[in-house]
Amino acid sequence: MAMKYISTRGGVKPMCFTDAVMSGLADDGGLILPQEVPVVADRLDEWQNLEYPQLANAVMDLYSDLDPAIQWSIIQDSYRQFRSSQVAPVIKAGEIHILELFHGPTLAFKDIALQFLGRLFEHILNSRDEYMNVLGATSGDTGSAAIYGVKGRERMSIFILHPSGRVSPVQERQMTTVMDKNVHNLAVGGTFDDCQRIAKDIFCDLDFKNRYQLGSVNSINLARLLPQIVYYFYAFFTVRKATGCQKVSFSVPTGNFGDIFAGYLAYRMGLPIKQLILATNENDILHRFFSTGIYGISSVKPTLSPSMDIQVASNFERYLFYRMNSDSNKVREVMDRFRRDGEIRIEPQKGAAVDPLIVSGKSDEATVLKTIRKFHVEHGYLMDPHTAVGVSVGESLSSGNVPVICLATAHPSKFPDAIHRATGADIAHHPLIDALKDKPSRFENVPPETSAVKDYIAASALNLIYS
Ligand SMILES: *Cc1c(COP(=O)(O)O)cnc(C)c1O
Q1: 290-295 long-range contacts, CB within 8 A, separation 24+
Q2: What's the pLDDT at 220?
């Protein structure tokens, strides 16, 4: 029987996969989860020699209700254009195994899910004869991965708000050099907070949202998480074959808790994970939670790893649901309290960690630069600053007796300034990034006002074509 999906807050009827994907957030304000996590511990040997797309297909079979031929073609199509035939290869650098997730079109791990999600949306919209206008705010990485997932797709347009002149030159060019007609880059004369506020205001105007069939591609969408489960299995198989190990640990550079939550689901599915190492930069709300049991808001500080500069982790509620033994009443209570007081407290049992599976640490700027330099000098391996957060925390928390797999979430060429500071040389290049310099770019300037963005969407949204 096909998997049903529920809300962390218990206020909606179990729904099918397609409805779960299309609704993003559940109608009761909760996040969507599978009703039951399928356990596959007895299928590991059967799966271990599958190629990446086949493994992705086997994992998605457990969760989706898509026609098998359509699902397989969406998956093949999503990963065909990755620049590594393995999609997510594992490289050994010293004692550390590095899982490279940046071989997609925008050189960041978000491609693995967003390439799939764009095609999945297109298929669902075709079969329902509907259209969608994707709206999102970005401080950098998510915008380009979302644009590349949606560009040129039928029945979809995408509107990405970025703070004018305040994203890195590489990130700006990645977004604004896409010339497809269904891609709209809005350079907002303000900060990232203005962009987020405007997007939120627009989503809250239900009339407007429904009239223009607004959709979201941020990581609260279940279909952003499921494709990320696959590489935890794939990396385990790769490292088990190389070392003969029976268990592994993963170190995950973490912002919104999406990537590491996919690892948590893999664990619940029966993947033999000893520890999930949660690595943050100086924006350490999650590290503070896993080391003290207190989850409290503080202000955002800009760092060398901007995609992890978050205040509140949008996927954390999914973890809380399991932490509270699937008691949605309790989740609702805790989230209400969090909205009121800006704080959640979970009392660890005496002497015990908040969660024996999840250990955490944080890495500051000096450590990130030192780690990039050290791996470059000692192992000839160049990593980006997000990856360096995971590697430095992974090294310091590794218990030594199982292999540690560090997730490499972006290619170093996306962050040339940090690489230059770390190594003293201009060595972070990739032909795709270098080529952006000569491409024409296109964006629309808008003032930091909700009404201005609404006007722009109203004038260019897709429903004008369909109605
Ligand atoms: C988004 C992102 C992260 C953080 O992932 P989460 O799922 O938000 O925890 C880490 N590194 C890079 C390069 C990213 O783009």
Answers
A1: 290/353, 290/354, 290/355, 290/358, 290/359, 290/360, 291/354, 291/360, 292/354, 293/345, 293/346, 293/347, 293/348, 293/354, 294/343, 294/344, 294/345, 294/346, 295/338, 295/343, 295/344, 295/345, 295/346
A2: 86
